[in-house]
Amino acid sequence: MSKRGKVLVAMSGGIDSTVAAVMLHEQGYQVIGMTMKTWDYASSGGSKKETGCCSLDSINDARAVAVHLGFPHMIVDIREEFGDAVIDDFVEEYIAGRTPNPCIMCNTHIKWEALLKRADQLDCEFIATGHYAQVRQENGRYVVSKGLDHLKDQSYVLWGISQENLARSIYPLGKYRKSEIRQFAIDRGYQELASKSESYEICFVPDNDYRGFLKRRVAGLEEQVAGGNFLDTNGNILGKHKGYPFYTIGQRKGLEIALGQPMYVTDINPNDNTVVLGEEKDLLRSTMSVYKLNLQKYAKVEDEKEAVTKIRYKNQGTLSKLYNDKGKIRVEFEANVSAIAPGQSAVFYEGNDVIGGGIIYKD
């Protein structure tokens, strides 16, 4: 039995999760690798070859490292639970006129729960992933903070992890830069892994065509929503669109309407199947509301709490103040922010620490 403890490591077959497993193995943990089969892309009707964490090649890559280092590896089929929670939510959010973030939904409700369920069955004290983030305990609470490599930082996608789950989570890569992780793999003979390309697409939409996915997933959707009106910000009809679920806030390209100047999607109204177009300045907002909250650093947020709020993964964040508002948090920004999209995640930071986060609500 290892003195460091027993850890179940989520291994996708990519460089980050593989190095996480190798690091923990070298540090003296008793490692068990687990690859989760979340999606069978062929069943979606897409044309692109299956790639990424669910492909046979990725599963074999993860298993090969485990065999090489002599620790157990298992494959767990969670397609049913993944589909029920993540894919159904993805579709329902677009039908509701919002823009979902399925990776956060997956982390919060599927991957961590699946990991912990199997960890308990295998008597593992800990679970680990290859995320670029850090976790520590402070004042009796577990706090996620940014990874050292701010270009790769993934703390944004971890805002929904509960205190109970964070207490058992290890992020071995949080104190390293991506370049160091690649060198770590090369030094141990995993040159092919170090040069492996990374996928930034949604795993169940590897052709990056979410509109096509929705059409295949919801029978008759295209016919049901086609022919709605484009409106300007004063409610005047500008033309016809192809269906409100096929547009996102801030979208400029692909509108297929000529208005003599660049126009952007500023609002989506599923009730009457209208999409509002405006100028770039019409995307600016100074406030928003956030619900479905999960707090990490503090058990509650005091009114006028100062924070840097990020509204997208690659967003740099904007200084803001937080206010409690009937189970939601109202965010007041010091400077206007552009293209706030209901359904996306808002994450509140204090320095490098995640205060908490939630889903942007359409007021």
Blueprint of the fold:
Blueprint (H helix, E strand, L loop, with lengths): L5 E5 L4 H12 L3 E8 L18 H14 L3 E5 L1 H17 L6 H20 L4 E3 L4 E6 L2 E6 L16 H4 L2 E2 L7 H10 L3 H4 L15 H8 L3 H5 L3 E3 L5 E4 L23 E6 L4 E5 L5 E12 L9 E6 L7 E8 L2 E11 L6 E6 L2 E9 L2
Describe the structure in your own words.
A hairpin with a 7-residue loop joins strand 13 (305-310) and strand 14 (318-325). This protein has 363 residues and is of the alpha/beta class. The strands form 4 sheets. Strands 12-15-14-13-16-17 form a 6-stranded antiparallel β-barrel. A 5-stranded parallel sheet has the order 3-2-1-4-7, sandwiched between helices. It has a 4-stranded mixed sheet with strand order 9-8-11-10, with no helix packed on it. It has helices at 15-26, 56-69, 79-95, 102-121, 163-166, 178-187, 191-194, 210-217, 221-225, and strands at residues 6-10, 30-37, 73-77, 126-128, 133-138, 141-146, 169-170, 229-231, 237-240, 264-269, 274-278, 284-295, 305-310, 318-325, 328-338, 345-350, 353-361. Helix content is 26%, strand content 29%. Helix 3 (79-95) packs antiparallel against helix 4.
